[in-house]
Structures are given as structure tokens and as C-alpha cells.
Amino acid sequence: MDLIAVIEPLVTSPLLYPVLAVLCSLDGVLPMIPSEPAVLAAGVFSHTGTPNVLLVIAATAVGVFIGDHLAYGLSRSVLGPRLIGRSSRIGGAVAAAGRQLDRRAGQLIITSRFVPGGRAAMNFACGMARLPLSRFSPASAIAALVWAAYTAGLGFVGGAAFVEDPLLGLAVGLSLSLALGSIVHLVRRRSPRRKVRPQGPADPGRADTGGTAGPIGLSTAPRPCGTARGAP
């Protein structure tokens, strides 16, 4: 109950909405920022009417959209490859995402929101692969709204189901979110393998387009994904 007494004034304050927007913006570049628990907590308490769940969703979506573009812009700068190259784990995730952006950019941008750490990796991949903003921004907007509604809604349902124990509602919401993230991650890992396997030796030849490889394996050739204006 003491923890609830600490959390409740924060989530019922008018400052909650800009705080959520800032946290979700920073989370686009720094995945360790606890934006998801904050949105879930706001959703848990919003079943009482304060905070307003629609404003929670709006503030979260705006923050996510801004954070996506911060990461996208950073990865296109000279600092992007250096920052990403410091972590082999993030570098590998960015490289893996970049190889799939040609045909499934929108789908990947949206589903990456539900994979732990997937959002930052996908945003960096889109920037380094020079995915045009005309393709990145609409997908980012849809992904931001979907994730905000899902996360705040999950908290709202948890708060309504566990009125007497909001912390339990928050714990259930986090568990369900992690479970969905794990499922999406497994599906995404298995799906590309099924598509790539029949191509056999064609993949290495396809990778050699005459460009120079970046520090994490992404091509920096002038023919990155999305530069063909007629591409869907």
C-alpha cells in the first residue's frame, strides 16, 4: 500500500501527460527507459477517470512518434554507426532488420513495437538503410498509436479487474505484455528462415551490390531499400 501511495499522486497529476511523452521519446533511443511500465501504470489508474485514458494514449503515441524519428535521424548521422557498433547485440539486430526492410518495412516497424528492444533496433535499421521518410513516418504513426492504445488499454483492463489491488493489475499487465512480445519475437525469427531457406546460394550474390559494408554489416551503397520510388 505504501508503494501505491507513492505512485498514485504521480499518475493523477496533470504533469503525467508530458512526462509520458518525454519517457516514450527517450525510449526510442535508450531502450532501458521504463516507458512501458509508466504507460501501464497510467492505464491501471485511468479506470477511475483520472488520468484520462484517451489523453494517456495520445501523449504516449506522440512521444513514441517523436522518439522513433530521433533514433531514425541519429542513425543517419555520422554518430549512428559508431553508437550502434559499440554493441554487438544491437548491431546484429539492426543488421538483421535491415535485410528485411525492402519488402516488409511497414509490417516490421509496427510489430517491432511489441518485441523487447525491437523498437530501437528497427528505428536505427530504417535510418541506416536510408528508408525514405515517406515510408517510415506513416508506419511509425500507426505503430505509435497501436502500441499506445494496446499498452494503456492493457493497464486499464488490469486496473478494472483488480480494483482492490492496482499493483496486481500492473503486474498482470506487464506479464501479458512480455508474453506477447515473446510470441511476436518467436514468430518473426521463424518466418524469415522459411522464406530464405529455398533461395539457397542466391542470397550471397544478392548481398553483393557493389556497396561498402558498414560497421555492423548494413550496406551503405547508393541503392538502399526504399530508394526505388515505385516500391510499395
From TrEMBL:
Residues 33-155 form the VTT domain. Pfam families: VTT_dom. Belongs to the DedA family. Residues 190-232 are annotated as: Disordered. This is DedA family protein. InterPro entries: DedA_domain, VTT_dom. It is a multi-pass membrane protein. It is found in: Cell membrane. Keywords: Cell membrane, Membrane, Transmembrane, Transmembrane helix. It comes from Blastococcus deserti. The chain crosses the membrane at residues 15-33, 53-74, 139-161, 167-187.
